[in-house]
Design a protein that fits this description.
about 90 residues; alpha/beta; 4-stranded mixed sheet; 2 helices; about 25% helix
Amino acid sequence: MAIDIHGAETMFPVTNCIVAPEKSMKIATMVSMTVTAMEGFENHVEPSPKGFRGLSHREIGDFSETLPFLLEAPFPFLDQPTGPRRSIC
């Protein structure tokens, strides 16, 4: 088993997500459901795209017996700061 932990912008589509290839999907789904039920932490599972070469969870899963998982956690400090917009003119 290999777990690759990443941080992403809070509005990134795979934030609070487990990304897994087909062979890891059953475990990823069970973990997601367990975390939601026991901790009340909303998350979801996404399949690892087959055509995305070079991604750790794709390469490790395709070329070894390892069960890989990618976890994306929200890191608010990565977000672009926004606030009231004023005209400079």
